[in-house]
């Protein structure tokens, strides 16, 4: 039983192909150190390498680029060009022999895959150089040398010498030789393990790096929440300034009443003068004069009061914080014999001391409560983080808030929010059902959202100018450039040859566009609508709905009908595919290499830009989102629209703002 368990452990750890999940068949070794069956590797290469001019492919395990044998060799022959994994082949031979129970007549050493020192019959003895004609058929263990019988009698009779016949020497050395053979195999195996997985010290360094990056992510999340609170406070102050003086003060009401009385008295006096009755004038003059004096005194009393005005002064503590911000954290790199402090230092403070924060990296910045009536729900959990294979944490702190795109005066009950981008502390939301582009504040109290009529708009993307966006109008076959500086306004328009439904900025100079009407295609167009690269992929793309561009310029497309997310190069070579457990909608990529995918089961997944899963339920129904639809991301802040609860008609005006 113990022997069977050893065989099973060896098979599970070293002899299973990661593609077919079976025992290796003709194992082939890639330069990255991973091994696969030759046929499995050949099938994988033919499925993923679609361009005839391709020169490399990605390893199925670590997604690293592997150079092929050359464009002159067909992809179905690439797998056979890689070397045979001799180590795996030897293990296979040992395991197979153990499972067969060994061949009849074979000794124990042969069953273990080891070789005897000599043949069992007719050893080829050498002749002694000292004693002519004598065979060297003895061995001295003390001197570690082969000798003849006369040499043993003449020169090897000391205490340390132990001379024995050839057969006995072989039987005594055989176990030691076998042990040395196994030792070399173990050394080779350990070296291969170090090359493939790294040393414990290296793994510890990677884990400490991951923890440090998680702490910085948490600090950045708190900074985002802090900025959101600051924007909210500034928006509330602006609102108060705008509304100041709208209510009529008592001084103004008194002035209006005084003005009416003066007008009445003046009218009475003018009528009196128009009668030319000297007696009436003399009788009323003194009374009218006293009324004028009363008006003078009332007007003087009002004028002497302090005028109404607004004074605003910044908070001293906040001003000092802005003028001399502290460093975020300390960072110490522990080397074998010393500790190197590489903490960023700020300007000296008022006491002449350098501004350090000596707290460890695990302590994040303080959490800020959101003032005012607006609710910001924050769920921050401090607990040991689990490091995944992809060097990301499964658990992240998040703060969430919700805004509505509906204005108070609107009576509409249906919205289709199929595009969204961040602009400062606003989001621009494309409402294709009501043919409107909506500018909504995310920083503070509610104000009326600015809108711009746009007929038939379907997608929106940021430009390289942070105050401009581009919007597609497929029915008109055009792209509209909109400025957001002071108010929403159309800046320019250019025509396209195709009706593009989706658009995304690519490498700051071009656009990636997608059409899901008629011929399914991915096009890269310039700023005047001319096609630079066209990828016709009707068999790969069936219903492309949203796309994004990664930090490396790769194009990520969500296909709702095929229920998968596809990453391809600008030339159309598929890099990887991700098949979630539901149909995907919106996709967005940040500068940290994370891609967020909205699913129609109320989940939002996070995957890496290499196709690895980071968090299967980054957001879910418990976060209050009903079928996430369009999504955008900046730094560590996301904005997500809802499709709503209806199965057929979008009906949700809500936008979720998530800081992570």
Strand segment count: 34
Beta-strand residue fraction: 25-35%
Q: Compute the gyration radius: what is it?
A: 41 Å
- Derived from helix and strand composition plus strand pairing, the structural class reads alpha+beta
Number of helices: 11
Helix content: 25-40%
Give a written overview of the molecule.
This is Tripartite motif-containing protein 3. Pfam families: zf-RING_UBOX (PF13445). It comes from Magallana gigas. Keywords: Metal-binding, Phosphoprotein, Zinc, Zinc-finger. The chain has 660 residues and is α+β, with helices and mostly antiparallel strands. About 10% of the residues have low confidence. The protein is 29% helix and 26% strand. The strands form 10 sheets. The protein has a 5-stranded antiparallel sheet with strand order 10-11-34-33-32.
Which secondary structure elements does this structure contain, and how are they paired or packed?
Elements: H1 2-14, E1 27-29, E2 35-37, H2 38-48, E3 56-58, E4 65-67, H3 78-81, H4 86-100, H5 108-111, E5 138-140, E6 145-147, H6 149-155, E7 163-165, H7 166-197, H8 200-243, H9 250-274, H10 278-304, H11 316-323, E8 332-334, E9 339-341, E10 377-379, E11 398-404, E12 417-423, E13 426-431, E14 436-441, E15 450-453, E16 459-462, E17 468-473, E18 478-483, E19 489-495, E20 502-506, E21 510-515, E22 521-525, E23 531-536, E24 544-549, E25 555-559, E26 564-568, E27 574-578, E28 584-589, E29 594-599, E30 604-608, E31 613-619, E32 628-634, E33 637-642, E34 654-659
